[in-house]
Amino acid sequence: MKDIIILMFRLMVCIFEIWMLFGFYNNFLKNKPRKSRNNIFIILVFALIIFAINSIDNTILNLICVPVVYFVLAIVAFNGNVFKKLFGTLIGTIVILGTELIIVAVLNITSKELIESSMVNEPSAFVLTIIVKMVTFIVFEIIKQFSSKESEMMDGKTFCLYILTPLSCLGIMFSVVFCRIDFTENSLAKSVLIIFFFCMLIGNAAIFYGYNRYAKILVEKEKNRRTVMEQKMELESYKKVNVANDRYITLLHDTNHHIKTVYSLLKKDKKDDAMNMLSKLFDKYEKAEMIEYSGNTILNTILSDYKEKSSKENIECDIFVERGFNIEYVDEIDLVAMLSNLLSNSYEAAAKSDMKKIRIQMFMQNDGSFSVIKIENSYTSMIVEEDSVLKTTKQNKEFHGLGIKSVQQIAEKYNGWLSSTWSDNVFKSVLILENSMC
Length: 438
Known about the structure:
Pfam families: HATPase_c_5. The strands form three sheets. A five-stranded mixed beta sheet has the order 3-4-5-9-8, with helices on one face.
């Protein structure tokens, strides 16, 4: 029974070790698309392989085979560059094997009586193993914190709060060892201590796993919300295109009748009536006009819409689109989201300002390698910036302020960026996108 417990403990340690390594790889390698239960199966298989190697009890074999198994795990479970996998394997091996060597060295140097105490038998070996894995876990979490993508990493304050728990647990474990607590007269107490030590280790891992899972859910929610917003914008844009087309169709249908009427009035020498009718007809055409700024219908629709809205608010709106301006490589939904957000912000700011001006320029740069969208608008309200990030001044901050962030994220998709500057009551946004068709 005792041997079975020891084997089960060692197997659990191997599973925990592979789970930590799997999470570490997942931090910078792309996980192959599969169901989560398949990941569990992979972790169990590789844990059994490590368990089998450890059971041979050959140090040289262990040092040679274990890193190979780690590398095979990276090959089997993840996509990505081979050199990245080799580098990840090297770091993972150093962390896992290095912490074992360091902890054993520290304990042997600082506590010689440990060798002679009751802590040297199996229960003490269990405690020592749990301490080693706790240190390994903390080291992996620190590395992951500084190498994670911005959307997946904790902010510094949150990480300090979370890391306090495993550090406290590690301190308790070390204290038990260095206090030379002897449980020779009560083996049950030893077993209870080991069980709770192991629970502390699993509990600490669960805390970070729970946070990561919660963070992913929040990211998914924000992505879904952004997708819904973009789809609404796209739908609104298409509706505007259809409305504009309907206006033209109606005008073209009625033009024939208008021309006949004007011709009839001219024949009767009623020039004033004919001119009056032509004037009304031209007014209708102007209202239905969608200016052809470029060969892109979506771009023309959005610019025409904001030109019309600006005119109604007495905003001076100057639009220049360079001949040959290329935006065809951008998905329509992305184009709608970027332009609608930028122009909406410019329109709202200009409408509230004293100067009431908007200037839009679209042109190519570096022999057509980049598409540049430059928008300038007047403003009078206060610009709020926090940690180099623009903050909304609107009351409902939960839903507002996502526009600029959305534009930045879409720009990154096209290897581009968005920069914003402001001075002398003029706000300037410059959006640069890499032309993939070049």
